[in-house]
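Lecture 7, part B: from sequences to assemblies.

Below are the input chains for today's worked example.
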Amino acid sequence: MSHLWDRLNEARSRLEPVQSKYRVIYENPDDMDAPASIMCPAPEWMAAAMAGGILPPIETYQRDRDVADGQPKEHPYAAPIGPMTEEEAIEYLVLKDCPRSTVEYKGNRQVLKIVPVEMIPTDRSFRNAWRIAQ
Amino acid sequence: MSTVVTSNISDGTDTVGTEYVVNGSAKCFWRTSGGYTGLPSSLNVSSLVDNGVGNYDITTTNAFVSSSDMTNISGVSSSAARIHGSIVSSASVIACRVFDSGGTAANTNSTGAIFGELA
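Predicted structure of the full complex, as structure tokens:
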């Protein structure tokens, strides 16, 4: 089984980057005074996710969150999974890169939204006041 | 893709061990656009998170062994912004901050690269 790094390099030389039509807006329940965060998937990562045979199962990343710094991690050596649709790739990315407190939030405030990229304002005036509309 | 396996690389005069080339290359890099709304070019990056003015995070696809062994280099693509700092928050997340010459947070496109040993 090749290392994840080798697969990423090979994929970058072979695949055209894919600009996602989605963005993920989220708030961190542990820091409710902070502005909403906007997650943009990396086009090279999106291409790898949609091609398949490159990224490891999401469960390996979730288990590695509990691995102490400096200790061996599972995800670089796990067998890769198959191709994902763009929507499945975004869900995978939410589980991988969003704060755990956001993903596991059980309150009645909406703290995460997957939206078309056109919904993100291009005018960044008052950027630090952005919140998710409730 | 084929693989060249060799222990040394030479230009005919100078010779260097392959491990210096392999270990000396950046294991992650990125360039932002549109404030922090896009990533025109990246390697080993899964996402960019825009946290506000002059404040974004980069998350890697392949984590590093340890946050304490990651060396980061970063810069900005505008002379108006003077400071770009990136802080390794974990073995897979790099927190970046950009300020103008007055010390105020600024939405300026920036670049970064991380060196170190991958997990």
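Note for the exam: Chain A is about 30% helix and 10% strand. Keep this in mind when comparing with the next example.
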